[in-house]
Design brief:
By secondary structure, the protein is of the alpha/beta class. Helices cover 45% and strands 12% of the residues. It is built from 18 helices and 9 strands. It has a single domain, classed as Rossmann fold. It binds 2-acetamido-2-deoxy-beta-D-glucopyranose (4 copies). One 2-acetamido-2-deoxy-beta-D-glucopyranose (NAG) binds next to helix 5. This is Lipase.
């Protein structure tokens, strides 16, 4: 126990050093002792390309759109319409924690491109914190305000603005929503707090839903849970949260996984990833470094803490700032819970049998709060968290695609008869 605490604190110490040593905020690599490695990683990343380049490379037409949220974030989202069908039903795909839309377009039978082939008007959302696809009208990555968000804000602001933008630009008053991992939590937060969005979401398919996750078998998450109290009080007391977040983003999320994969080799990297997100044959192959890159689009530490709080509370509650601050903000020591009865959009919960977070037990817990939701457990193989988006096995990808399709292809959407505007 002491050993774990010690190693954990060392980790924080190292990150802390990284955070406080460099006063330079324009070139994050200038005083980075791993400069050579960072260079290799950057070269590597440049060869991977971005979402739009990848979609084009696979032969699909793609458009970029800019969505501004009520609180001033500007998100770049993408749209893919296959020419086969003139006016498909709008479908929004939202990626998980620290991921960009890249996870939905890796192969031609990845979820996003498959759905475009099926005639859907597929939109790919990105969230605040993504260093490639988000910015703010006033704040930069160097401002604390930029990073002051958890999955709640992703739901209230990013998801709602994205949904409204899409409905403004299509012939429909409703859409199909497909969310993955942490995006399932932010979407439930929106649908619970702003129930009018239930009318806009005709069907919500959640892949690896993470709303109620008390039964965690991820070794890495368990390690963080053991030290949750230290982490929380340390972060609450941290003066320069922006620098820490920016550094975490740069050093840990952007560089940690690729650095580990390139330095220690793919098998070590697979092992570490399996401790975090679970293992199944075919989850991780030689593309592990690519996966690592997808995993690293930027995230706020507050989002991560809020996920740990969910595990702790065994349900979805507002962000906890500590008892005193909670009383000031919410009037109660423990933050209020989200009311899942407010979520009325038809919901499908699809979990993997071997997912360390979104497993059958947690899925059962969610459906106790949402008895109307349809539950599906994927058990074709040791199905784990990443298999939804990164399985190298093309048959597994087809299997997921069919599961999604059979739950959306009978959905009818209300047309928007008044929208005679400039939609295309
Ligand atoms: C940090 O970045 C901000 C925004 O880019 C800039 O205005 C400021 O001058 C920078 N500070 C330092 C010490 O470089
Ligand atoms: C949708 O269109 C209305 C009317 O043109 C506009 O007021 C609103 O800001 C738009 N919303 C988004 C998210 O684009
Ligand atoms: C939750 O929402 C339902 C449906 O609107 C309502 O009947 C119930 O009273 C709410 N529960 C709480 C605790 O607010
Ligand atoms: C569309 O038209 C209906 C009926 O004519 C009306 O009730 C509704 O408010 C209109 N919606 C918008 C967004 O203008």
């Amino acid at each position: 126990m002491n050993f774990l605490r010690l190693s954990f604190l060392s980790f924080i110490f190292i990150v802390g050093i990284q955070t406080s040593c460099s006063q330079d905020n324009t070139s994050s690599e200038r005083q980075n002792p791993f400069n050579g490695l960072a260079k290799t990683i950057n070269q590597y990343k440049n060869t991977i390309g971005n979402t739009v380049q990848n979609i084009k490379k696979l032969g699909y037409p793609v458009e970029d759109h800019q969505v501004q949220t009520q609180d001033g974030f500007i998100l770049t989202i993408h749209r893919v319409r296959h020419n086969k069908v003139a006016s498909g039903k709008p479908l929004l795909l939202l990626p998980g924690l620290s991921c960009s839309a890249m996870i939905f377009i890796r192969w031609t039978n990845s979820i996003g491109l498959f759905l475009a082939d099926q005639g859907y008007d597929v939109w790919f959302g990105n969230s605040r914190g993504d260093i490639r696809y988000s910015k703010h009208i006033r704040y930069t990555f160097h401002d604390s305000e930029f990073w002051d968000f958890s999955w709640e804000e992703l739901g209230y602001y990013d998801n709602s603005a994205t949904i409204d933008y899409i409905l403004n630009n299509t012939n429909y008053n409703q859409m199909i929503l497909v969310t993955y991992s942490v995006a399932t939590i932010s979407s439930f937060a929106l649908l619970s707090v702003n129930p009018e969005y239930n009318d806009k979401v005709a069907t919500h398919v959640t892949l690896a839903p993470m709303t109620i996750v008390p039964y965690q078998t991820s070794v890495v998450m368990s390690l963080f849970m053991i030290h949750y109290d230290i982490l929380q009080s340390w972060y609450n007391g941290l003066f320069d949260k922006a620098k820490f977040n920016h550094r975490i983003m740069n050093m840990v999320t952007m560089h940690f996984w690729p650095a580990m994969c390139l330095t220690f080799g793919h098998s070590f990297c697979k092992f570490a990833m399996a401790l975090f997100l679970g293992y199944s044959p075919g989850s991780y192959d030689e593309n592990i470094a690519v996966i690592a890159y997808d995993l690293s689009s930027g995230v706020s530490f507050k989002t991560f803490l809020h996920i740990l709080q969910q595990i702790e509370y065994k349900e979805m509650r507002r962000y906890s700032y500590g008892e005193d601050e909670n009383i000031k903000r919410y009037g109660t020591k423990i933050p209020p819970a989200f009311n899942m009865s407010q979520v009325t959009s038809p919901t499908v919960l699809i979990s993997g049998i071997n997912d360390p977070g979104s497993n059958p037990i947690n899925s059962e817990m969610i459906s106790r709060k949402m008895p109307q939701a349809k539950r599906i457990i994927l058990d074709k193989t040791m199905f784990t968290h990443c298999d939804f988006v990164w399985s190298t096995d093309t048959e597994i990808r087809d299997y997921i695609n069919q599961k999604i399709l059979e739950n959306i292809n009978t959905v009818t959407l209300n047309p928007n008869n008044n929208n005679s505007g400039n939609f295309t």
